[in-house]
């Protein structure tokens, strides 16, 4: 499966992107790319997986089950978390100044490709 090439294209298409990671529902890395340290990127993926799982559980309790994306912004960074399937998700990290609209568009395109590869 060409996950790495899809992730490389994603990171290359978003100005300021510092890493992208595909992880499973437990937060285990499937594949990752980017200038960010590998360990740090895996750690980001695992922690964002916990956040995604908690949000899904909360939404399920109120009868909503279609979580589309999560955007987490700090002073210096921006992280987008997008479910690919019920079992996999994609995380894109970048500097705070990255263009959110371009990142969201690129993520959705990437998710479409990954859904076909995973299925």
UniProtKB/TrEMBL annotation:
Any Pfam family matching the protein: Robl_LC7
Originating species: Syntrophotalea carbinolica (strain DSM 2380 / NBRC 103641 / GraBd1)
This protein's name: GTPase-activating protein, putative
Domain Roadblock/LAMTOR2 positions: 4-94
Taxonomic superkingdom: Bacteria
Gene3D superfamilies in the cross-refs: Dynein light chain 2a, cytoplasmic
InterPro entries: Roadblock/LAMTOR2_dom (IPR004942)
